[in-house]
Amino acid sequence: MARLYRFAVSSALLLQSLACASPEPCLNGLCQFTRNKLASRTVANELGPQLSANCNIYGPNDTQFGSCTARYDPFFTPKIQMVVQPATEEDVPKIVEYANANGVPFLAMARRHGMTSTLSEFDGMQIDMSLLDKIEIQPDGKSVILGGGVFAKNIMEKLWNAGYVTSSGSTSCVGLLGPALGGGRGRLEGYYGVVSDSFLKLNVVLANGTAITVSETEHPDLFWAMKGAGHNFGVVTSLEMKIYPRGVDTWYYKTYIWTQDKLEAVFEASNNFHNDGNHAGHHLKEMAFNMGSYTIISSISETEGVIFWSFVYRGSKEEAQPYLDAFDAIEAVSTEDGNVPYPEIPGVSGTGMNSAMCDYGLNHVHYPAGLKVWNVTTQRQIYDLYNEKIAQYPEFQRTTVNMEDYSHEGVNAIDPDTSAYPWRDRGLLSFIAVTYDPNPSLDAAAIAWAKETRDLWNAGAPDLLPSTYVNYAHGDESTESMYGYEPWRLEKLRGLKAQYDPDNLFSYYNPIIPNLNPRSTHEENFQGRKIGAKSRGRGQ
Ligand SMILES: Cc1cc2nc3c(=O)[nH]c(=O)nc-3n(C[C@H](O)[C@H](O)[C@H](O)COP(=O)(O)OP(=O)(O)OC[C@H]3O[C@@H](n4cnc5c(N)ncnc54)[C@H](O)[C@@H]3O)c2cc1C
Description:
Elements lengths: L10 H10 L19 H7 L9 E3 L4 H7 L9 E7 L5 H11 L4 E4 L13 E6 L6 E3 L5 E5 L4 H11 L1 E2 L11 H4 L8 H4 L6 E7 L5 E5 L4 H10 L5 E8 L1 E2 L5 E8 L4 H11 L15 E7 L10 E8 L3 H12 L5 E7 L4 H4 L14 E9 L4 H17 L7 E7 L2 H4 L15 E9 L6 H17 L19 H5 L3 H14 L22 H4 L14
Parallel strand pairs: 2-4, 3-4
Antiparallel strand pairs: 1-2, 5-6, 6-10, 7-11, 8-9, 8-10, 12-14, 12-15, 13-14, 13-17, 16-18, 17-18
The chain binds flavin-adenine dinucleotide.
The site of flavin-adenine dinucleotide has 30 residues, from strand 3, helix 6 and strand 10.
InterPro entries: BBE (IPR012951), FAD-bd_PCMH (IPR016166), FAD-bd_PCMH-like_sf (IPR036318), FAD-bd_PCMH_sub1 (IPR016167), FAD-bd_PCMH_sub2 (IPR016169), FAD-linked_Oxidoreductase (IPR050416), Oxid_FAD_bind_N (IPR006094)
Pfam families: BBE (PF08031), FAD_binding_4 (PF01565)
Organism: Pseudoneurospora amorphoporcata
């Protein structure tokens, strides 16, 4: 790649740059005015010389801008004025300092699967972490150093080929840190806990541009917070994670498709399988993960959802079979099984690079619920609602109602107080994703359906406080439901915010401290007016 000045300069862009620059540039100090509408050329001229050779800076007129900003789910879209791609970790503090000096909000992104409504309050500079993609297995074979922009597929493949595994999310195309900073749910959690349980240390750039290392021994309170509430505290430029011997050479998988008349039998078998939420000693860690969905498979029916279910087992078919006997006994429309290396498991269970899960550009209006046991009556109500809505809105045909059941031994083995991830007691994770081509006239119906489904799940579990896995949050749920109801958790997190991000600059991803000034950096401030409330305080 050539040096960074890779903007497609046009006279129009130059004029835009001149028109939008603040009348009083405020580099080298705090800015009274946001310069958020800086053109990429201006940023390249001012920031570019400070950065390393392979950085890129793109503005909306550059051809690369579209691919750098395309989102998995465009329903909640942050407004991106410019994209800066650091090429080295040392570039990141300089970018953050520049953004602060110009009153420009900034947000780190890797794979752009973030899907919470709070992201749509963002208007500023995307720090695209994708060039920070190193994966370096350490000589002692106990850990790996990863760049801040790595994603699941690459890690799984590189480690596996070298004889190792580590925890990541279950979907190949999703970033590592997006999930992990919120805990991170994945197929190895029965062994090693949630993804962040394997963190050893993180290199973090704080809101003021200071680069620090965070671990059990350095800034241990912040290390605690990064494991579950990390989106609120900094940009992770790299991290060291534990790795583990890969074990077996192949994993066994089996998928089933059942028609709706088997629904009760399926969920009863599933509750037996995880022993009504008491996984210990019952739901083996080898029986790593199973997930299902209500979905339309048009070759079976265009009007009635089927129940798709996928099991994966770290070992052979023979070892897995005793756990699958109960499901084999339920007559399926079809089944498929086989043995593949671990990096191929996403591809055969519907979460691979070529799966619909990795297609960008469709709305996925979602709401989640964390559960311990399937309420079979509720599952039927949600299924009936599914068919009703598909009939009413054929545009929603690609909608899925998703049920995830993780092996939980490794998660439960860790003291819940030792990280900010608060939901170790919820083995089951469910969410609906109302899926359709972007079309504002359908949005209200999509939200209503998604909310009704979530509310049914919660009503069916009256003994549980509603929980929201932060990475599946819609964005309007209570802070307690995301970060925990025990008062000490939010008190501790808010204390750490005061210490490490007093101006609440990291407030776009399900913030602990709400963005009090939503959209305040938008249009009115672009006209050179003073930035508003404390939430954007760098400009004050
Ligand atoms: C198809 C799909 C499958 C999913 N599967 C799983 C799964 O198996 N397990 C699971 O736990 N979650 C899963 N999720 C949820 C996922 O955790 C979140 O959507 C996550 O935000 C995606 O991370 P990303 O890097 O892809 O997205 P991005 O939009 O690039 O990042 C999301 C947020 O993470 C933060 N962030 C990203 N990189 C950095 C960094 N280097 N430093 C600091 N902050 C950073 C930022 O706040 C950013 O806004 C899935 C989501 C989707 C859409």
